[in-house]
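Entry type: protein chain
Record version: 2
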Amino acid sequence: MMPPLWQDAAERARAKACQQNQDKHAAAQGFLLGEPKRSGRSASLVDWLDVTANDDEEKGRAQVRDGEDSLEVILVDVHREGCQREIRTLPTAPGAPGVIVPTDRVPGREVVRAMVMSMVRLSPKFTNPRRIDATIAELGKYVVLAWQDDPELRGQLFLPLEEGRAELIGITVEYDSSTGLKEVPSE
């Protein structure tokens, strides 16, 4: 039995949850497939998957996303030798491991593909509503203007790693090809 003082708050919470559930259900209706067309006693799968969906992939993901915001970043390696600084693909990047990435022009197709294949999703720690703006602002410092001319790199965020580590909004992260991008515990 619920205490009488809690009943109003519980009812409001129940109504809010019910409304959110109905909203999610309504949003999903546009993505459901209909029954295959019937022709006599049998159904035909011809044209069954022809749907009128928006071709804008990012908008489509946003329409069905129920969770928190997320960010994906392309990881690149930074090598320093004296005053020289080179950006490279990750040593484990498929097709072009450890290749120097030019910053004065668009990289070649093989290098771009290796870069895109080095994309990871940041943990919710970086994308929660209190931190996402700071995360995006800090990642914005690493945008290379020449790369914006490539359709696959345009608008992407990059996280440069030095010896497999980076600091992002005061949090140290480490990348390992087998475990992914993980937070390094404070000492």
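Comment: The two ends are 47 Å apart (CA to CA).
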